[in-house]
Amino acid sequence: MSIQSPHLTTSVRRHRDDHNIHCATTTPIKTNVTPSATSPKTDDPSLKSTWSHRVWVATGCTTILASLASAVVGSVNEHIWIKPILSGFIGYLFADLGSGVYHWAIDNYGDASTPVFGFQIDAFQYHHKWPWAITISEFANRLHVIGRIITFTVTPLYLIFHDQPVVMGFVGVASGCIMFGVQIHAWAHGTKRKLPWIVVALQDVGVFISPSHHAAHHQPPYSNSYCIVSGVWNRFLDEYKVFEALEMVLFLKLGLRPRSWSEPNSDRRKEAEESPVM
Ligand SMILES: [Zn+2]
Ligand SMILES: [Zn+2]
After folding, report:
1. Domain total in the chain
2. CA distances (Å), 235 to each of 110, 223, 227, 232, in order?
3. Which of 71, 173, 227, 247 sits a CA distance of 20 to 30 A from 27?
4. At what angle do helices 9-19 and 118-129 cross, to 10 degrees?
């Protein structure tokens, strides 16, 4: 399951050779270039949306809307409301928890050469280096990878469970939060006065993760606040050191050393540092 797309996938690939990032599980991230030499540019054409990007976002949205519509129609026909609404709420909580687990795994294990996930691992390291860059890619450019994954995972679920409103409630809300979790994450790096008022309101009440909440992930010790949909799980996961315990288990059982044990490194930046005036 993918929670967060490689927001700057194309750009990352292009920058990868320049950065010469080595993210082995046993070594800290190193870079051989100065940050100012590779700072993303707001007019970078690789951050623009293409028609292919828009098609994948559209198909992803279609599968989500079809699932939600099935949940509503099935609820009306069967005169049930509580269970589909409850399953939708569980889907919302699941998306946030899933975003945290996936983000933690991607942040800490593997490197750019890892099969399947390598480009996302690279993209997340890029995001830590240039957090604000997520805000300058265009919408479909940012969401097209997760749109494609949602299309291929939700379509079979819809075909099998379309007549079960409780399942469709969970699938529709969870996949919607997972897909738009990328956008919610981007908004968490936005400037409040430039965000739509409704987004700011949802951030303020905690439905979406807020900039102040997510900022904790981009500050030392760089090993907490991994959840990026609502962030509702972060307090529990951090307070009970759930990921630290998992890291210890993986180290003792498999010898895998998480990247967070090698932090801090100079590649990480706080939001305000070196961000362009936007
Ligand atoms: Zn991260
Ligand atoms: Zn972030």
Report:
1. 1
2. 26, 13, 10, 7
3. 227
4. 80
In the structure, what pLDDT confidence band is assigned to residue 221 with cuts at 50, 70 and 90? Answer: confident
Q: List the alpha helices (DSSP H) in the chain.
A: 9-19, 51-78, 82-108, 118-129, 139-161, 165-187, 197-205, 211-215, 234-239, 242-254
**Domain of 106?**
9-21+49-262
Q: What's this model's pTM, rounded to 2 decimal places? A: 0.82
Cα 248 to ligand 2 centroid, rounded to whole Å: 25
Distance 176 CA to ligand 2 centre (A): 19
Domain-embedded: residue 54: yes
Query: Which region holds residue 222: left if phi is over 0, alpha if psi is between -120 and 50, else beta?
Result: left
Q: Is residue 190 part of a domain?
A: yes
| Ligand 1: centre distance to CA 217 (Å) | 7
Can you tell me the distance from the alpha carbon of 5 to that of 11, in angstroms, rounded to the nearest whole number?
13
Ligand 1 center from residue 131 Cα (angstroms): 10
pLDDT tens digits for 116-144? 899 899 999 989 998 988 999 899 999 99
**Nearest-ligand number for the alpha carbon of 135:** 2
How does pLDDT run across 26-69, given as a tens digit for each residue?
A: 232 333 333 334 677 777 778 899 999 999 999 999 999 999 99
